[in-house]
Structure formats: C-alpha cells, structure tokens
Amino acid sequence: MIPRIHCLACACLGLALVLIGAGATDASPTASSAAEPPLRLVFGGDRSYRPFHYLDVDGQPAGFDVELFRRVAREGGFEAEFRLGDWSAALAALEHGEVDAVPMFVSPARARRFAFSAPFLSRYHLVFGPLGADHVPRIEALSGRRVAVQHGGLGWEALRGVDPPVTIVPVAEEALALEIVAEGKADFALAPTSIGYLAIRERGLADLVALSPPLLDRDYAFALAPGRPDLMQRIDLALAEVRRSGELDRLYAEHVEHMLAGSVPREADYLRTVLLALPLLALLVLIGLLWRGARRRALTEAQRAEQEASSRQAAEARLLHLAFHDPVTGLPNRIAFEERLAPLLQDEALALAQAELVRIDLPGLEMLQTLAGPLVAEDMQRVIARRLRETEALHGLASLGRGSFALLLRGTSEPAGKARLGALIARVQQRVELGELVLAQRCRLGVARFPAHGRQPAALLRAADMACLVAQEQGQPLRVYEPDMEPDPRDLTLLAELREAIAGGELGFAVQPKLDLRRRRFVGAEMLARWTHPQRGPLSPGVFVPLAEKAGAIGEMSCYMVQRAIGLLRQWRESGLELSLAVNLSGNDLEEESLGELIASQCGDCGQRLILEVTETELMREPRTVLRRIERLRERGIGIALDDFGTGYSSLTYLRQLAPEELKIDRSFVATMRTSASDRSIVRTSIHLAHELGASVTAEGVEDEATLDLLREFGCDHAQGFGIARPMPVADFLDLQPRQGGAGRLRRMQ
Ligand code: C2E
Ligand code: CA
Ligand code: CA
Q1: Ligand 3 center to residue 477 CA distance, Å?
Q2: Looking at the structure, do residues 257 and 294 belong to the same domain, yes or no?
Q3: What's the pTM value of the predicted model, to 2 decimals?
C-alpha cells in the first residue's frame, strides 16, 4: 500500500512540476525553484560532532543536523552540499561566505558574527568529572579549576566569562575533553549532554559522571552567512514546514534512539511520500484558488448568493461532522455513540441481551507520540480503527479520543465471549507497519454487559470506563465491570481518619533503595507512604493516595512527606551520608504556592539531595505555572524526577522545556523488557532520550538479575525494584550503607 502511494505521489509530483514549468508563476520557494536552476547551499560543520553532524565510516555526512538540512533543502527547493571538517575552519568558512549554513548553539557573541535561522532545538551542556567529585551547581563554581573544553565552542565562550577565571584546557573535539579528564590532565570537562554521554560509553570512560544540572540552556539553529536575508527567510519557511509536519521531532527521536546503537536511521518511505506530496498539495490549492477566482468573476449575483449559501451549508455540515466525529479516525465520538446506542438499546433490547460494551485503551500511544511525533500516533490510531471495524458481531464503534475506542458487540454465550475478546486483543496487538517503523501496540480492555451493568448508553459506557481504569491500576489486559469497583461510601470515614493520621504524625513511610548501576552501590532512596489503619490493618498507597487526591487532602500529605524527607536528609548529612531522597508529589501540588514555599523555606542546604517525583500527566495540567514553580525549586538545587515515564502524555518540546534531572521509566516496560522486543526498544529509547535531555535515568520495577544486566548494557544510570531491594524501614536502609561516616550511630537515632 505505502509504496503504491509513494509511486502515485511521484507521478503526481512529476505532473505538478510539468504544470508549473508550463507557465504558472508563483512566488513560493518550491514553485520558483523548479523554473530556475536550484540554488546550491553548502552546509559546513564539524566532522566529529555525533550524533548531530559527522562523517560516517564511509566518509559520508550523517547525523540529525545533516538529515534535517536535507529535509529543509527539499522543502525550500534548493540543493544541499555538505563540507564537514575542522570546527574552527567551518566557522571561518561561514564568515567568509564559503559555506552558507553551520548548525550551532546560539550565543550573543555568535549572533554578532552570524545571522541565525529560527532555532530548532534547545540543548544543554553538562559538567563531567570523576566519580565522587563535588556537585557543580553552576558554571561559576568552576573558578580556579582546570576545565577541558572544545576550543571555540559554546562552553569555551562561557568559561572565558567566568571570574575568577577558569584554567581552560582547550581541545579540538568535544569528546576529547572527557578523555583529558580521564587522563587526569583536567579536573572537569564541559560538553554538550549527548556528546558527553556518548564519549563515556564509546571510549570506556566508566569513571566519569555528569556532575551538574543542565547548564547553558541554549537554542540550537543554523548560523548563516551574514547579509543574506533572502536565504534566512527561505530556510525559516522550510524549517517551519518541517517542524509543523512533525518531521523534526520524529527525526530527533530517531537519532537519539540510534545514537548509541551506532546505526544511522533510514528515512521512512511514507514520510518521503508526505514530503513529496507537499508541493503537489500546494499546487492543487493554488489551482483551486485560481479556478475559484475565475468562476467568481463569471457568476451572476443570484448564482453567487446561491453558491455562498451552499458553501455555508457545506461549512455547517463540516462543523456538524466535527462535533460528532473524531477528527483523527473519522469515527463517531462519545456523544454520537451515545445517541446511536439509545434507540438501539431500547428497540433491540432482546437481540442485544448480554451484549458487551468494550472500551479499548492503547496505553503506549502517548509514548509513541512523545517519541515518534503526533503524525505517527495518528496513523497508529487509524490502523487500529480499521482493525476494529473488522471485529465479529460488531454493532457499533466509536473513538473516545486519545487512543481510546468503544465497541458494542452482540450478545454471545461463554466461552465464545471470552474467545471473542481474546481474538480482539490479539488483533489489536498485531504488529503495525508504518513505513519503515514496525511497532507493537499493547491494549487494555474494560467490558460492561447489557443490561446487567446499565440500560442507558451513558451508564454502560461509564461502567466500561471504570473496568478499564481498574484494569490499568491492576496492570491487567482485561477487566469485566463488577459493582465492587464503585467507590466505597466508607471512603469518607477513611479520609477523615487519614487526615487525623497525618495531623497526628502517624502516617508512616518506607524507603526503597536506588542502585547506581555503574558504581554498584546505593545512592539514595524513594519514600513511599505507609499507613496502618487501626481497624483495617496496613493499607496500600494505591488505596489512600487516590482517595486523598480526590478529596483534596493530598496537599497535606505531600507537605508531611516533604517535611519528613528534609528531616532525614539533615540527619544523614550531619552523619556524613551523602544520600538522596525522593518524595512523590501528586495532583495539584506544584500548582499550589504553599508546597513550593514550604520546600524553599525549609530545605536549607539539603535541596541538593532532595528529589521531587512527579508524573507527566500532572505536569501537563498547568504547564506554565508548574514550569515557573520548578524554576524556583531548582534555584535551591532541588531535582525533578519524571515518574512513571511512558505512561503519561507529554511532547518532546515540553520535555525539553521542563528539562527534568531524572526520568524514571515505568515498571510496566521494565518488567517485560526481557521478553518483549518493543518494550526493550522503549526502554532503550527512553534512556537515550533522557540523556539527550540532560537527565539521568532510573529504571523502576527491576525484578531479576538479567534485566539489570540489560539495563547496564543500555547505559541506564540507576535502578529500583524488588529484585534489588524492597521498600524497607529507614533503619534497614542505613544498615545497607558501607559502615563509615557514622551510619551505625545514625541507625540508632531512627
Ligand atoms: P510509584 O511512585 O511508582 O512507586 C513505586 C511503587 O512500585 C511502589 O508501590 C513500590 O513498592 C512498587 N515497586 C517497586 N519495585 C517494584 C517491583 O520490582 N515490582 C513491583 N511489582 N512493584 C514494585 P507502592 O509503595 O504500593 O506505591 C504505589 C504508588 O503510590 C506509588 O507509585 C506512588 O504513585 C504512590 N505513592 C506512594 N507513596 C506516596 C506518597 O508519599 N505521596 C504520593 N503522592 N504518592 C505516593
Ligand atoms: Ca515514584
Ligand atoms: Ca513510578
């Protein structure tokens, strides 16, 4: 199918070019470029700036910047030539107009020398140094130290501005800076995140670690020879199109994924198709507009009025369609589905006895969107919608948005019903091929039965939603609704008791150790709330945390936990234990001023060791407010860990803005990574992505040695899980620490 579309697009493109060549005059870059000889633009840069631009083993230009420039060239209608070599020479060549574009960080000094395209990335540097060296919270802390850095690079520029001065040890390539540190010829290296991590892995510099938060947060753009506003406009237009199409994010994710695997991604066929089709679409729109203009002039007043009325009707019909259909799949949405179901359930009640309303969620869709971009996620939904249409005994199908679907299936007897659902899961989970991407998609089902679980469409849908939610909470692929799933009225009493326990300081907690995979020792722990109810015994946080969230009591709980964490960190520090402690935040915590204030005012110099775990979904609720709060917390050295990564929803752009210090890969991916190739790929990609964002990465839910080995091989930094250590009392955790620095004395204080 896809190759056929591709051929069709090529043929149409050929036709489009012939038509344009035959006389259309158009100011658009693509159209004019076909009439004139295409402009040749020379891309310059460093031969060894992996994974951004470099010469591969065959001496061919490769990397994210190179691929992006190729796309931009294609979009802008010019030819691209690549000249990669020495970095300083590339800068000089750009200044002398011998090359046209060099991708680089934007800095004020550079902006005085060159013009810059719109930025296409935000990137960071990190300070790397030996294991055990002091944390470097900001660049000024490098005063008086020997720091290796690439001559002429952004890091070099920044270090030259530090007062009292840094002893700069200049090197020719970014990656060499780390080697110099490993050889003891410099104390630290300052290098871009991905390049530093790549050097550590590829050059076997296992004793080097990142010691700073992300520094020099800078835009990354094409520097262009000055005095060429025409060129800048053309490149910006083409860049905007490449970004809008989702191609930029996808390309970036692909290169992060392939960076450590050592292979260069091939472009997906269907993307090429889309890009090739763009000029054609532009042409068709143009022809349409010209045709419409000509028609308008020829129309009489009456005809015009009639035509306007009909186009208004068409617009209204389209709006109406949008109001009742999902824009991605074209399927009826929830409102339309309920309307359709109502008469069906009434008139055909008998035929539909024991009918099943099935809700299907695609839990990996958000991850796919984050890593591969919205276009791929949309394609995936369309493929799944097509598969669902083929379901046997289907009586109705709807899209509930964000990768959730609802199906009404005619009644059947057991065990045929069970087999039918099993087949449905198998069909949805079959591999999906999108161009050259081969993806496995997991799904989760919630089932409600008619009429036992509701006679009205809304009640049935709600029951299926509830069953799906429980399936998610329990990590199961399928749950059939049960009345027990409904919230318990006793919850209100429980909530009052929880509040009392918090106020009375009776809420307990366990700590789960976090293992540093390279140093093979515990570097900190995560606090997990524990509550033993006076009558009901120990309750899982899975019970009382959601309750506190729903009832608005979570702020009190979070304040309590943060205070306990700060207290512990103080004690540990006084005893010479340099351990970090992570606290789980939730819901509106970061939207509220109070918690931020509490942390800022109480943490003192413990901020460096305090980590706040938040999930993507929570962060996305009020992204701007949350980003502002996080900035303030960062000023105190507090780190942000993105919890349950892979289960929430966030775009790469947002992740880059947030720049978390740590990414915690959700245990649902880690638990199955040994047996599932797609989960393994998600874990590996997440690790690279985290490093590219300047974050360290923790794998959660490690239950066996083999998974641990795999994570080490993938370059994962930290791990937690029952296979390493279960959540335990603080005293037991301290017993695990090497017997030094007063841990024994401290143990007795707990
Ligand atoms: P989480 O933050 O993802 O915490 C990890 C959960 O996974 C913990 O469950 C932990 O016991 C469990 N776990 C750790 N390793 C493994 C493993 O190898 N296999 C399996 N199957 N499970 C493992 P726990 O303590 O029941 O906590 C559940 C959730 O409750 C936490 O998930 C967190 O979202 C929430 N929670 C716990 N304490 C707090 C708290 O103080 N505040 C807030 N807001 N939420 C909390
Ligand atoms: Ca957590
Ligand atoms: Ca987690």
Answers
A1: 19
A2: yes
A3: 0.49
